[in-house]
């Protein structure tokens, strides 16, 4: 997995690029009608229900735009929210608050939606030993935010990108000439390049499960698009040789049944690609 330093760098890049994209050569709406020295205060108002996410990110945005802005935090990331709640107040230069407003709202609305959906999945798994994972099916350019939101919602992060874990999926296996060849080539590559990377291998049926188990060095087997019965059989075959992960169209109505098959993890792209933003507003305080 990526280090904290790598993750923090991703967040910094997101903020810098988003501010560049939004402000350009100036926030002319604010420059036109608000004095440069004007001071103001605004509140982050919740107009929806769910799990709050993005407060810490908002603090980073405000600090990037203007280190003199002051944040009075009321609610923390991971808090259960309802219509009418106030997450925080921000005070200081009015132009600075307005420069940061849209990025803060865009990020927090999406992050809160992802955290809310993740939390729903986590609650459905209560009483089992299965954890929910995100995927790389994220919005280009803001993956760090979306994976951060999954953690806030109680889920776990899968690999961050192509560089921090090896995942041999169907196309890798087919292009490499089969499962065994793909695994052996991968282990050789890791040794030659002195890499510390875990290997996940996707299985499309029980015969592929058996073939994977003939090789050593596999960290986790991805049991992809199996039905319940075959998933249970796959888990029994794998035993404690490596970890197990179910994936493939698993949703709110099926996730509990897959967990009851005994898998360690369930991954779902829906956590990040199928959410509706929570309704949040930044409102001036008189």
UniProtKB/TrEMBL annotation:
GO molecular function: nicotinate-nucleotide diphosphorylase (carboxylating) activity
Catalytic activity: nicotinate beta-D-ribonucleotide + CO2 + diphosphate = quinolinate + 5-phospho-alpha-D-ribose 1-diphosphate + 2 H(+)
Gene3D superfamilies on file: Aldolase class I (3.20.20.70), Quinolinate phosphoribosyl transferase, N-terminal domain (3.90.1170.20)
Quinolinate phosphoribosyl transferase C-terminal domain ranges (all copies): 114-283
Pathway in which the depicted protein is active: Cofactor biosynthesis; NAD(+) biosynthesis; nicotinate D-ribonucleotide from quinolinate: step 1/1
Keyword check for Glycosyltransferase: yes
Quaternary context: Hexamer formed by 3 homodimers.
Protein name (record): Probable nicotinate-nucleotide pyrophosphorylase [carboxylating]
Source organism of the structure: Aquimarina algicola
């Amino acid at each position: 997995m990526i280090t904290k330093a790598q993750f923090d760098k991703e967040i910094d890049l997101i903020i810098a690029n988003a501010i560049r994209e939004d402000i350009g050569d100036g926030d002319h709406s604010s420059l036109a009608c608000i004095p440069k020295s004007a001071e103001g205060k605004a509140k982050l108002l919740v107009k929806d229900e769910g799990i709050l996410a993005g407060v810490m990110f908002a603090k980073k945005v405000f600090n990037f735009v203007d280190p003199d802005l002051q944040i009075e935090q009321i609610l923390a990331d991971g808090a259960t929210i309802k219509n009418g709640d106030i997450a925080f107040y921000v005070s200081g230069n009015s132009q600075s608050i307005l420069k940061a407003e849209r990025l803060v709202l865009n990020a927090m609305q999406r992050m809160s939606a992802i955290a809310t959906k993740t939390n729903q999945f986590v609650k459905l798994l209560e009483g089992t030993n299965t954890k929910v994972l995100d995927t790389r099916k994220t919005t280009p350019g803001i993956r760090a935010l979306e994976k951060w939101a999954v953690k806030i919602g109680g889920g776990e992060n899968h690999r961050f990108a192509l560089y921090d874990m090896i995942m041999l999926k169907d196309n890798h296996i087919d292009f490499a000439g089969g499962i065994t060849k793909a695994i052996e080539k991968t282990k050789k590559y890791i040794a030659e390049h002195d890499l510390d990377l875990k290997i996940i291998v996707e299985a499309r049926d029980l015969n592929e499960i058996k073939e994977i188990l003939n090789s050593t060095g596999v960290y986790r087997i991805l049991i992809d698009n199996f039905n319940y019965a075959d998933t249970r059989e796959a888990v029994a075959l794998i035993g404690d040789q490596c970890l197990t992960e179910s994936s493939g169209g698993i949703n709110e109505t099926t996730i509990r049944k897959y967990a009851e098959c005994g898998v360690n993890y369930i991954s779902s792209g829906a956590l990040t690609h199928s959410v509706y933003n929570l309704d949040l507003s930044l409102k001036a305080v008189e």
